[in-house]
Design a protein that fits this description.
Blueprint: E1 8-12, H1 17-28, E2 32-37, H2 40-50, E3 53-56, H3 62-76, E4 79-84, E5 95-98, E6 103-106, H4 109-135, E7 147-152, H5 165-184, E8 190-197, H6 203-211, H7 213-221, H8 232-244, E9 252-255
Parallel strand pairs: 1-2, 1-4, 2-3, 4-7, 7-8, 8-9
Antiparallel strand pairs: 5-6
């Protein structure tokens, strides 16, 4: 796909972290970017910085997402690139000891269901709404390409740590969705890929650096090479390559400095 000012994109979670880096990378290539996020103040600031559009969107709400796509398309036309970084999740061990009662308790099913909604279902919601718009648009090139969808999974989908049943399971479901969705959409020329980031220097992790520098230093040392956390701009760079390179399809790509997570 030719990435320039004729292309529109939607980036969820674009107010910060990996989503912000993705929005910046696409905008730097001339793309018209719409940011979907619940954080209105930060989202508006990023949109202003990159010359894009902010849409307040709750990925858990079908109506909110539909309204966001309608607003983005009214301003920029049909999006041809979608980068889904937003996430809603929970945590907790399957069974843990309750000091108050002196017995073991289980992580509630509702916590798992919330993560399933905020990771797997939300990923399908964003991808499928984008896909139907792309499918009803004209091809962009001689390959018949109509668009590309980039989902965000996690290294935790393969190396889930203690307490990550909800998060790792949800992200693993995203991985399992990529190939069948790419096959579903092959006849309409829409590509689907996922990025599995390792430990990146996003705002939550930078908070660890401020509050617990020794723990942060240990995280950096755990990365084989380079011995640091990932730079969000490196995530944005891969987003651009996945959008540009039409032969990337049906892939789940780790971006992690070769880290493999220990149990905890």
């Amino acid at each position: 796909m030719k990435i320039d000012n004729t292309i529109a994109a939607v980036v969820t979670g674009g107010a910060s972290g990996l989503g912000k880096a993705s929005a910046q990378a696409l905008a730097s290539a001339g793309v018209k970017v719409a940011i979907f996020d619940v954080n209105e103040e930060a989202g508006e600031a990023v949109a202003s910085e990159i010359g894009g559009l902010f849409c307040k969107v709750d990925i858990l709400s079908e109506d909110s997402v539909e309204a966001g796509f309608a607003k983005a398309r009214a301003a920029h036309g049909q999006e041809r690139v979608v980068v889904h970084c937003a996430v809603v999740t929970g945590g907790g061990k399957t069974v843990s000891f309750d000091k108050t009662t002196g017995t073991y308790k289980r992580n509630p099913t509702e916590m798992i269901a919330r993560s399933a909604d905020g990771i797997f279902t939300a990923s399908y919601r964003i991808a499928s709404i984008a896909a139907v718009g792309m499918a009803n648009s004209e091809p962009l090139n001689e390959d018949g390409e109509r668009g590309c969808i980039i989902l965000t999974s996690s290294a935790a989908s393969q190396d889930g740590q203690i307490g990550q049943v909800a998060y790792g399971g949800g992200k693993g479901a995203v991985n399992s969705m990529v190939l069948p969705m790419a096959r579903d959409l092959m006849d309409v020329g829409i590509r689907v890929n996922a990025i599995l980031p390792g430990i990146f220097a996003t705002p939550p992790m930078l908070g660890v650096k401020d509050k617990a520098p020794a723990i942060f230093a240990g995280l950096e040392a755990s990365v084989p090479f380079p011995k640091r956390l990932g730079n969000p701009a490196e995530f944005g760079s891969l987003v651009l390559e996945l959008a540009r390179n039409t032969y990337f399809n049906g892939q789940c790509i780790r971006l992690d400095g070769a880290i493999r997570m220990p149990p905890k």
